[in-house]
């Protein structure tokens, strides 16, 4: 089936219209008519070749929501008409210890990412959700709970799970003080989840102007990261810091905010992170941790949790023809909501 | 009381004999006749000014074992004749949250280190255990269990607690695979504790020659850190790595050994640690943690545990007149046991 898409023809050029063939669903595949796709900063990093070489044209997009159109004959859990989601990955070895435990995102052999990854099923480079159609192995398709709005659900597949998973793993709950560093697409979801889990939540940001939004999402207040007074006042008080900064930065001032046994968790793939004085973690038995999206089982749990508690991202719906402008806004840090592409409006059917 | 000591007269000069006055015990103080003092690499770093400015003459030594000679009138838990130990600290604020929870080593105000720290009790610079006498507030004095040999017990006060505390905090036990990076004064204690706690222990070292010693201490084997084959074979298999390397180093090859949710724990105050790709912790939800000695309560627990299970360091007893030679051997990495100064033999009583 032909899929209408927008793709980067090279690392330097803007995205443009592109048509390509999706494979016929194999026995374990699910074919999805894409309705919405969120726009993630990773799309830009990848398409611009900032995370290593990729094959062009590159079709980004890994916050995909749509309706099942066809399923392979072995598919058990999906049928045409089902509302579904696809996140950052569409394959993994399935046999390593990580996969067996449900951490397909940390597959010891190699996770197959939703775009610009080598697909072992058909040998092509995977192509993402800036497109009208996608074919994905059943194991990597998520059920969209009934109450979730399709457009708002899209960013949950990356921004949602990326913040939900570490908050769960480090057992965020009552009597904990949690800081969310950065209030963008990830950060605002982190605030909402951490608040719902019972923690006292603060936003740590360089921008005083974000105080109102932070509080609206559930934060008790903000700590201005450039203010020595703010940092000193909050020293040694945080149990957990979710660090959503998407580029290299010195973690020293943030580590000083941690209480004994506190953890700062990075969620962005950043190369390189600058060095640090080990005394910043030795003193107080602290940790600099990392977390990247989450496994399939946990992603489904996150979708169900988000539906149950109505935790949804702030979004702005766009048409795909505006994608290059949207990317410029993201690069210029002019956007703290999540852009979501409306594929049906972008490519109206005749 | 006059204390015979060896001290560094400056950052450049060898240690030499020096006599100085210890304060009369205040009401909460314990006066200790020092019998043994272990030699720690931190002594060298501090005396040579590598960890910041210090006042000279600097009397190092924070692995102190001796006999109580006098106690202040409010002292409750010690009496003359008691066998005791003093570790890396002799004071802390006592009122912050860290102190109240028993983490005096992470005092939010300032831990008073056993040497080259400002002593709030009398305003002097603290002087350590390369000496015949020390006066220490009761709270920072440890009981030496009966069965512990005094000379062998000395290094427990730093090397022992530094390895015991993180292994306890990260709940090392059965069905866990633990790697000890480096097999020096700290590393060999780490192997013994981790083994006793029930883990499968491996030593990760650049030196193939340490295999025999590693196994003798309880390791299942070694992984040669410079061997790509060794590293590849052990990839993704460790739950916990205790990193005892005392200087800046790239943790990337070690992080690749960690299983999902694994932790690498630094125990050396290293400035700076080189930067890293956050992908090394994001992929697998891993942590780079730190741990520095331990609180007083846990140090007592470690002494009791070491006595109960007869876990003791490998030592070589020297006289203090040989201290400069011993330091040279440590600097040249020619010593994997722990030097312990015999103070009684060094300064025989007439």
Your description of this structure?
Two copies of one chain form a homodimer. Chain A is α/β, with parallel strands linked by helices and 350 residues long. Chain A folds into two domains: 210 residues, Alpha-Beta Complex (Quinone Oxidoreductase, Chain A, domain 1); 129 residues, 3-Layer(aba) Sandwich (Rossmann fold). In chain A, 24% of the residues lie in helices and 25% in strands. The first copy, chain A, is built from twelve helices and 17 strands. In chain A, the strands form four sheets. In chain A, strands 3, 4, 5, 8, 9, 16 and 17 form a seven-stranded mixed beta sheet that branches. Chain A has a six-stranded parallel beta sheet with strand order 12-11-10-13-14-15, with helices on one face. In chain A, helix 4 packs across helix 5 and helix 4 packs across helix 10. The model of chain A has no long low-confidence stretch (mean pLDDT 95). Strand 15 of chain A pairs antiparallel with strand 15 of chain B.
The arrangement of helices and strands of chain A along the chain is EEEHEEEHEEEHHEHEHEHEHEHEHEHEH
* Strand segment count of chain A: 17
Main sheet of chain A, how many strands, which sense, barrel? 7 strands, mixed
Percent of residues of chain A in beta strands?
Answer: 25-35%
Protein chain pair with the most extensive contact, residues per chain: A-B, 45 and 45 residues
What gap, in angstroms, lies between the N and C termini of chain A? 17 Å
